[in-house]
Batch of 2 targets.
Target 1
Amino acid sequence: MTDRRNDLTAWDRNHFFHPSTAMGAHARGESPARTIASGEGVYITDTAGRRSLDAFGGLYCVNVGYGRQKIADAIAEQARSLAYYHAYAGHSTEASITLARMIIERAPANMSRVYFGLSGSDANETNIKLIWFYNNILGRPEKKKIISRWRGYHGSGIMTGSLTGLEAFQKNFDLPRSPILHTEAPYYFRRADRSMSEEAFSAHCAEKLEDLILAEGADTIAAFVGEPILGTGGIVPPPQGYWRAIQAVLRKYDILLVADEVITGFGRLGTMFGSDHYGIEPDLITIAKGLTSAYAPLSGSIVSEKMWNVLVEGSDRLGPIGHGWTYSAHPICAAAGIANLELIDELALVDNVRVTGAWFRAALDQALGDHIHVGDVRGEGLMAAVELVEDRDDRRFFDPARKVGPAVVAAMLEQGVIARAMPQGDIIGFAPPLCLSREEADQIVAATLHAIRQVLG
Ligand code: PMP
């Protein structure tokens, strides 16, 4: 067994090009490598037999937890009966039709159709094309620019990497800047003027957006893209009144709104969609992760009635839409999605998020709220973050070179709990499976407190 494990690690370092990894350090064996063998509930076990509570649900995606027999059976059954057929030219499978209906039944009001993809990135690429197509159909070829927020995360493709407002995903690749613009992140804790109330900061963000629209010309701005809660940018819930203020600006200038619900879709915030939670009325919704709980890769763009009607009119005039993936609506992934959505209902997981999420948040506040190096504890549902600071009174951040966040996360792992060191700032992120129990929530909080004390005293 040990030999086999050593072989695997060597093959990994020699042959496997990992995403988002320090390539040289990994290849040279200077950074830890971990091979995961199995998962059950909120736990994963690696090939060395070490078990960890996965308080990040993989990458905020294993929402129903690991090891669900029902989804495994649905995948196997679909593979046996029909592993694949495409969705071009009006073809479907029973699974893809059923899943599309289930998604629309659960989606916010006025959503009409689902276009299926494989990843959050490709779904956002689809959204961008649909937005451009929409404005071409409407005879507004100049209305093409898309605004997202600094710290927004929308994918790693060519356009979606540009849409993502995190430097690491853009620099070194010469991604196209145009026609993407970025506006201020609704990051209340890091606001420049600390005397601002949440409402005032929301008004400030909306003003910044309006200034940008006016500077560029409203007839050049097609859409605004945002996650209901900033995810990879730091797990940052919006300040009070943010979405109301932003939507008022977008309506004023006839700008489409894309809610990127790749993380928040299907229950993470204690409502089926984050849009329900914040009163967002999107024209497009991006879904992925929680759609199948990552048992199979599947994403979607949910298109509103308003956009759908225009797209249909355009297609009647211009011909079939020239946009498709071989694996759009892949039946095995759709079967996984159906079983996953059924499980979310059967296990009342959205209710569990509300109850256990509140418990988890209260426990985090109680354990960490007064710690001198904890600047902010924040979250919604089962998505939370702890932001560490050098000095909480004058909100001084640690020198990034100290890598305090990664050190705390490493210390947590030693205690058998996986959290994520968010990429910008010393931010410890949590997004556990939605089936988390109170005992498991307490275990995460205890490990966090212990690790912070160990690293920072
Ligand atoms: N949008 C959001 C909000 C995301 O969090 C992510 C992935 N973390 C994506 C899009 C991209 O999804 P994928 O990695 O599946 O391409």
Target 2
Amino acid sequence: GKYRVISTKPMPGTRWINLLIEQDCRVEICTQKKTILSVEDIIALIGDKCDGVIGQLTEDWGDTLFSALSKAGGKAFSNMAVGYNNVDVNAATKYGVAVGNTPGVLTETTAELAASLSLAAARRIVEADEFMRAGLYDGWLPHLFVGNLLKGQTVGVIGAGRIGSAYARMMVEGFKMNLIYYDLYQSTRLEKFVTGMYGSLSYGQFLKASGEQPVTWKRASSMEEVLREADVISLHPILDKTTYHLVNKDSLAVMKKEAILVNCSRGPVIDEVALVEHLKQNPMFRVGLDVFEDEPYMKPGLSEMKNAIVVPHIASASKWTREGMATLAALNVLGKVKGYPVWSDPNRVDLFLDENSPPPA
Ligand code: GLV
Ligand code: GLV
């Protein structure tokens, strides 16, 4: 191959590798045992000549790495993730390296995990499973693992992009929940669904016409409004300076005592120490977490909380999605290395599959 492309991890499927090989690339895959590669590890991988890198969200892609990649002749970097808080896009631009991410293919998979965590928290599935396995079940009881009925309750979505909108739709349509969402931008994608999917009827009118309790929806004017009113709240913002510790001691205090909070975005969106304290003080408050402030660690006390469900950052982990992410990441790098016109704007991320999302500010 004429071009040297590195993947810092083995990735699912073979399509991504074949795409690169068929187009003059020599693909090198790092098989180091350690899970999180350091900046030094990656500099060693890049070496003297490297045209493009596919990297992971666990890696710190800042000035040092983009400088090294640029010196090696590299033109492209793709995160195998939709989130790119681990990538300093300005540094990449400074060194002439284009950056890509992998939106679109993980929308439904991620929303489905958020829905799973919402249901698991509402119905106390994990606690109940532990109870069974511990041999504690000695007969049906009216009070055993009583949880929340979602139907008729309000789901709150903070960040109504692709994933937040897909999740909202699942919860509204699937479980007949009322919706309140907060986003800096009006979500046309979400409002189209709630206002007019059923011919000329809104989903609420459609339910009413079928003799069901209609659902309601609104865009909140503040995040606090969502925190105050919703029974289940799912977080779907990007992580940046403005969303760091978006959920903190004060925002937790505003939420209902029996609310459910779900996070499949990025850990630092929640002040995890404040959350542990809140879980201790409010045993009826439940949380479903896919992401953590200092991955792979959890803040002290979190793992002992019965009212917390914790899973290891697996929201995008379906076979179809992970192969799709690998393929998109490879296309991102290939497109730039081969000079395809899609890369004409080096600042543009969110390149594929979603022309409607605004470029990052
Ligand atoms: C996963 O967390 C992603 O951003 O794709
Ligand atoms: C954000 O990137 C989203 O897909 O919602």
